[in-house]
Amino acid sequence: MAIYKLLCNLIFIFLLFSNFHFDQCRQYIQITHTFQLHISFIFTYNMTIFEGWSEIRLNYYSESCPNAEDIVKQQVTNLYHKHGNTAVSWLRTLFHDCMVKSCDASILLESINGIQSEKISTRNMGMRNFKYINTIKDALEKSCPMTVSCADIVALSARDGAVLLGGPHVEMKTGRKDSKESHLAEIDELLPNHNDSMMYVLSRFQSVGIDVEGTVALLGAHSVGRVHCANIVDRLYPTVDPTLDPNYAEYLKGRCPHPKPDPNAVEYSRNDLQTPMTLDNMYYKNIMNNKGLLLVDQQLILSPVTSSFVENMAADNGYFHKQFSRALLTLSENNPLSEEFGEVRKDCRFVNSD
To answer: Quick one: a GO biological-process term for this protein (predicted)?
Structure first.
């Protein structure tokens, strides 16, 4: 077993760095001086990736539920035309689920029978539209009972939602299983926060196999949706963050007039004022003009590790979409569960009863 784990470690490191351009790696090491820390994240991640890991593949449901992906796509489309913000929610749900241990739909679990829902974490504040995941699940259950996992619904709805928002189509694998437990206790450690340092954010993404270029692209999801004032006010009060464009800061103060906003109040600002419901490179153009909404957004152009990628994505929407597709795919494949450790829930909100 020890030899097996050693071989897995070596293979994992080789594969990880094969996706990392040499010059980027060298620059990353020179600037951060934290290569040992970087390696520790690789080993920490690797110690868990093989435990309970499941093989996922394209067209996993081709025999058991041939219309599964079409059903998801139709439901996502129907919901988008009724509630446009659902498409944004699917992207955010995938991120918040997959970054915490596994793409296993643990974020959908409600607090019941000893389970504490991940939804109560402050890191998940503002998450919404979970009820529509069950709308999609109900449609699948009518066609193929107890076949399609909630984890796959989370992944496929994010894929189809991105297209409806003007983003790229991603060929996504399926076959994930659903977690039987919540990961609430691990959220603060594993899910990067909006005001974390850029080096820490990069290390968190790298721990799930996403390189610097992919991280910059994936943060481009901030091109759509909105942010609650509770996550903005630290840049406005008591003094305005000097990296903010003054006119933009005044606009944000108008949207968020209170230094301590009620987290339950509907007080927010759109991520992107120009194209708020389009997944495009306007996000990067805004950052270059000191109009990044969150601190982590503005840090992308301030950091020498990430700034060149911001400039390239601002100049080329196609390049942004290509890198976004690559990063989203990597994220969606983080440590999927096998049947031994997971299940296919009948109701996405609850673990199956024995």
So the answer is: hydrogen peroxide catabolic process
